[in-house]
Amino acid sequence: MSGGLVLGRRAARLLCSVVGVALVSAGCVHNTEGDTADVAKVRVETVAELAATVPERIRQAGKIVVGVNVPYQPNEYRDASGRIVGFDVDLLDAVATTLGLRVDYVESSFEKIIPAIQAGTYDVGMSSITDSREREQQVDFTTYFSAGIQWAQRVGKDIDPGNACGKKVAVQATTVEHTEEVPAKSAKCVAEGKDPIDMKAFDEQSAATNALVLGQVDAMSADSPVTAYAIKQTDGQIEAAGPIFESAPYGWAVQKSSPLAVSLQKALQHLIDTGKYDQITANWGVQDGRIKTSVINGAVS
After folding, report:
1. Do 267 and 234 sit in the same domain of this protein?
2. Is position 52 within any domain?
3. Last residue in a domain, options 215, 231, 246
4. Domain, as residue range, for 42
5. CB atoms near residue 219 (< 10 Å)
6. How many CB atoms lie under 10 A from the CB of residue 43?
7. Which of 127, 175, 152, 158 is nearest to 234 (CA)?
8. How far is CA 157 from CA 68, 216, 242, 298, in A?
9. Are 14 and 211 in contact (CB under 8 A)?
10. Cα(265)–Cα(279) distance, rounded to whole angstroms?
11. Distance CA 292, CA 136 (A)
12. 192 and 139, same structural domain?
């Protein structure tokens, strides 16, 4: 995949060890945010015709059980009160309401989500999962967003994602940026007789962002909505480095051949057609990744 997660997002942890004013001045980014009150919920109504498409077992339960891995701001993370919130949450909540359902979010390790879907533990996997051809062998996807890769740098620096040989680059562990994108760029550097990229992998995206803010690395590579959010949260200390590239779809994962995929697709398309989807993406500042048509299994690689 390009611009999303591959097998997991956890490996090693970097903690901000200062508190109070020192924490603020160091520019540390938190894993929980208290600003969700400013993100308005978009009101939607149940559509009986679409609700009737939901598989009987789920319709009788009145809910979908969703495996989710946090934090990955702004898509899914815990707010100051401990609630799982974010763009992904608001969008899936709206889809579920359209289908006459509620959502039961269950926090999970990223690498366990797809196996749990296959086992029937979760109805849906929602964690900024890229719809890839490899993953489509295991689960089906309903696409809902288009994300690319976006690099960031400290303000005023000049980092070229296409020529970062010898630079220190932060990534979140086991994302595609960690397993594919940056290693491929580094290998190209070596093949050209240049220094490899010194890739620094962190357990959480906030730690990767902190490393950039504090000048411990030269650049950061992450999914485009994540980088945009990080830039916003650091109050002008970092900025985009180069354009968004390698766009690919995010998808909600369900069991292979499950009719739930079609129910989700129809409900999302209804939100797209009525403008509700645009409102939700705008509320979270991720409108650059909007799609016009939701499909089942829309992998591009």
Report:
1. no
2. yes
3. 246
4. 20-26+30-147+248-289
5. 24
6. 9
7. 152
8. 35, 14, 12, 37
9. yes
10. 18
11. 21
12. no
pTM of the predicted protein model: 0.79
Positive or negative: CA dihedral 154, 157, 158, 159: negative
- The secondary element (H helix, E strand) that includes residue 223 is strand 219-223
**Cα dihedral sign for 89, 146, 1, 247?**
negative
Please tell me whether residues 254 and 172 are part of one structural domain: no
pLDDT at 78: 93
State whether 284 and 158 are in the same domain. no
Contacts of 129 (CB under 8 A, 6+ apart): 4, 5, 113, 114, 135, 141, 250, 251, 252, 253
Which amino acid is located at 294 in the chain? S
Residue 109 shares a structural domain with residue 242: no
Burial class (CB within 10 angstroms; exposed 0-12, middle 13-18, buried 19+) of 236:
exposed
Within a domain: 301:
no
The DSSP output letter for 43 is P
142 and 36 in one domain? yes
Q: Both 38 and 141 in a single domain? A: yes
Cα separation, 205 vs 221, in Å, equals 10
Do 68 and 141 fall within a single domain? Answer: yes
Residue 268 in domain: yes
d(CA 4, CA 21): 34
Strands 168-172 and 219-223: parallel
pLDDT profile of the chain (301 residues), mean per 10: 34 28 39 58 97 98 96 90 96 98 96 96 95 96 96 97 98 90 98 98 91 98 91 90 93 98 98 98 89 97 88
